[in-house]
C-alpha cells in the first residue's frame, strides 16, 4: 500500500461548484464540492467507504489505523507528568510525588505481566446423576 499512487483532480463546473475526482490505486470516486479542501475531505471519506464497507462509523477506522498514535500520545503525557512532578523536589529529600508515580507505573506493569501469564484452567463439572440426561434424542 506504500507505493500506491494518489491522484486528485478538480474540474471547474457551474455556479462556483467543482467536480472532484480522486484516484487511489484502482479505486476512483467522483463528487461535487464548493472548494478544494472540502472536495479532498469528501473524496477521502468515499475512498475509505469503498475500502471498508463493513465499517459504520469513523471511530472504528481510527481504532483500526490509529492505535500506534494513541500509544505514543499516552506515553508522551506520562513523560510530561513525570517532568512536572520534578518541580516538587526538595534538596536532600526524596521526591514523594515521583516515587508515587513510579509505584503506580510498576503496579500497572505487574498487572499487565500477570494478565499475560494467566492460563485458563479447565474445570470438569460432573452432573449430580450421571446418565440421567440422554445425550441425543431422536423422534421416530
UniProtKB/TrEMBL annotation:
Domain DRBM residues, every copy: 18-51
Gene Ontology cellular component list: microprocessor complex
Pfam families in UniProt: dsrm (PF00035)
UniProt-listed GO biological process terms: primary miRNA processing
GO function term, MF aspect, one: heme binding
PANTHER family assigned to the protein according to its UniProt record, in alphabetical order: MICROPROCESSOR COMPLEX SUBUNIT DGCR8, MICRORNA PROCESSOR COMPLEX SUBUNIT DGCR8
Protein name in the entry: Microprocessor complex subunit DGCR8-like
Source organism of the structure: Pelodiscus sinensis
Amino acid at each position: 500500500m506504500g507505493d500506491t499512487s494518489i491522484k486528485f483532480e478538480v474540474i471547474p463546473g457551474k455556479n462556483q461548484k467543482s467536480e472532484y475526482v480522486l484516484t487511489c490505486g484502482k479505486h476512483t470516486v467522483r463528487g461535487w464540492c464548493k472548494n478544494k479542501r472540502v472536495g479532498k475531505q469528501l473524496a477521502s471519506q468515499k475512498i475509505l467507504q469503498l475500502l471498508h464497507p463493513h465499517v459504520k462509523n469513523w471511530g472504528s477506522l481510527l481504532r483500526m489505523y490509529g492505535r500506534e498514535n494513541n500509544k505514543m500520545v499516552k506515553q508522551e503525557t506520562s513523560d510530561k507528568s513525570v517532568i512536572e512532578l520534578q518541580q516538587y523536589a526538595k534538596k536532600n529529600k526524596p521526591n514523594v510525588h515521583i516515587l508515587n508515580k513510579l509505584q503506580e507505573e510498576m503496579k500497572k506493569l505487574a498487572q499487565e505481566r500477570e494478565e499475560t501469564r494467566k492460563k485458563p484452567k479447565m474445570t470438569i463439572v460432573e452432573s449430580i446423576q450421571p446418565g440421567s440426561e440422554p445425550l441425543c434424542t431422536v423422534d421416530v
